[in-house]
Write a structure and sequence with these properties.
mainly beta; eight-stranded antiparallel β-sheet; globular
């Protein structure tokens, strides 16, 4: 498949695969050959819809924003074909990497009819996504430059699907997220809000929760440990910058559970046992001025 690029770190043997549709990382295997990411066994890889699994990219909106009339859920990055930047490829002792680029003028679908629809010539941006891998680590950095003449508001996430081994996503001793205590929890299913305690976040039912860092400050980075079965954990650290300044990064935890899994045409009915989404994002309505840069960096250590 010409659309899929295989990136290998020769020294360690770690490897990952990136699909040009959405610049979606669809696999990362560490130096021991263990897969880190979940991808649906019936995911569409033909560009007919966003790829179900791996690390879909979300921008300029998380979910649906009524202001962006006609724009589908999560925006247009995951619904566009990106350009592999040939000159960015490298493979040295420390790591191997590659970058992908997307310019707004090349986005043909999922733009909606409002601000991003193409009529306002003042709105423009260029996105670059860089993937670096080494023996047990992957760093993915999503960077936006406002190349237009008007500021725009945005939200962005890396919608990371972690593979949970042993079919164990519903086993609280094996699958969990630790490190969100003190975060402001918005439960999108029960429509309730609370403060996250010290207990790990676990999957017991349909789960769709946003964890926002405490407003008291001091927690711009997300730093969580995710239990992924087989007695294994993944450490995920994420940070965000807007115009060079650190900004708070939120974390979304999602699992579709039985009913929602069955309702998705590209998600096998029982595979909700095999995954947990832990998604770092800049969600609190930042604005990016012309000529300025924003970035969201995720580091996954197995």
């Amino acid at each position: 498949n010409d659309a899929i690029f295989a990136l290998t770190h020769t020294k360690s043997g770690a490897k990952c695969s990136i699909h040009s549709y959405g610049a979606t990382v669809i696999s990362f295997q560490n130096e021991k050959g263990v897969e880190c990411l979940y991808r649906s066994s019936i995911a569409k890889l033909d560009g007919s819809k966003a790829i179900r699994g791996g690390i879909p990219l979300v921008f300029p909106q998380f979910g649906v924003n009524e202001a962006n009339v006609g724009m589908p859920q999560h925006g247009f990055l995951r619904r566009s074909t990106w350009e592999l930047m040939e000159s960015s490829k490298y493979d040295d002792d420390d790591s191997a990497g590659v970058s992908y680029k997307l310019q707004l003028k090349d986005v043909t679908e999922a733009r909606g009819t409002a601000l991003w629809g193409g009529d306002d010539k003042g709105i423009d941006c260029t996105c670059v996504y860089t993937i670096k891998i080494s023996g047990m680590k992957m760093i993915t950095t999503l960077q936006f430059t406002n190349t237009g003449t008007k500021a725009f508001e945005f939200q962005t996430l890396q919608h990371t699907y972690f593979r949970v081994h042993e079919h164990a996503a519903l086993d609280a001793t094996k699958c969990y997220v630790k490190g969100l205590d003190g975060y402001h929890l918005i439960d999108k299913i029960s429509k309730t809000e609370s403060t996250c305690g010290s207990d790990p976040v676990i999957i017991e039912k349909l789960t769709d929760r946003v964890y926002e860092p405490p407003s008291s400050g001091g927690k711009n980075q997300v730093n969580v440990v995710v239990g992924v079965g087989n007695g294994s954990t993944v450490n995920m650290i994420a940070s965000g910058k807007v115009d060079g300044k650190d900004v708070p990064v939120a974390c979304v935890v999602w699992n579709p559970f039985k009913e929602n899994a069955a309702a998705m045409s590209d998600f096998a009915d029982d595979e909700y046992h095999d995954m947990i989404c832990v998604e770092p994002g800049i969600l609190s309505g930042h604005s990016l001025e012309p000529g300025k840069v924003a970035e969201l960096c995720q580091e996954i250590q197995m």
